[in-house]
Design goal:
two-stranded antiparallel sheet; alpha+beta; 27% strand
Length: 173
């Protein structure tokens, strides 16, 4: 019976992954400022009420390639994770340009994720040991990675001391 149950669970997980891989994206060109404005409008007041310092660096506006709605979804998910798993002191969005791409990094203070767990944060159904009793399914960053790949971009994370940095890479148009 255990083998049969394991087989069913494997099929369910496989079916779930296939559903997420079919997420629809409509690639077009849009200005980076459009994405930043959406994020700023949504989080400035929310984080102010939480007394969280919210900083958005200056950036050079340019056309980027991707789905504007899905790009917003990705940055919102990263920011929600910063709110959820950070210490509530500071969330910082910074920008860089590299190899014809715009890199948008969301950083939060108070990172408690062990370095050894960092390679798994984009795995489906995976949750870090720092998740404690916080609700979640372990799918948010997995979905972000799938969306970024479908938009010909990428996403990665790194830990620098007590800062968690999650970077979305958008191709320039």
């Amino acid at each position: 019976k255990a083998d049969e149950i394991e087989s069913y669970v494997t099929q369910i997980i496989s079916a779930s992954r296939e559903d997420f891989l079919s997420l629809e994206v409509n690639i077009s060109e849009f200005y980076l400022s459009e994405l930043v404005n959406r994020i700023s409008l949504y989080y400035t007041e929310k984080l102010s009420l939480n007394k969280t310092e919210f900083i958005i660096d200056k950036f050079s506006d340019c056309l980027i390639s991707g789905d504007p709605d899905r790009s917003t979804e990705v940055i919102q998910n990263i920011t929600e994770n910063a709110v959820k798993y950070g210490d509530g002191r500071k969330i910082h969005i910074s920008f860089a340009e590299e190899d014809g791409c715009v890199l948008m990094t969301v950083s939060n203070s108070g990172c408690t994720l062990p370095d050894s767990e960092l390679p798994h944060i984009f795995d489906s159904f995976w949750r870090g040991s720092n998740s404690g009793n916080r609700s979640g399914s372990g799918l948010g960053l997995y979905i972000c990675r799938q969306l970024m790949h479908k938009m010909n971009g990428d996403i990665f994370a790194r830990i620098n001391g007590d800062l968690m940095n999650c970077t979305a890479v958008f191709p320039k148009s």
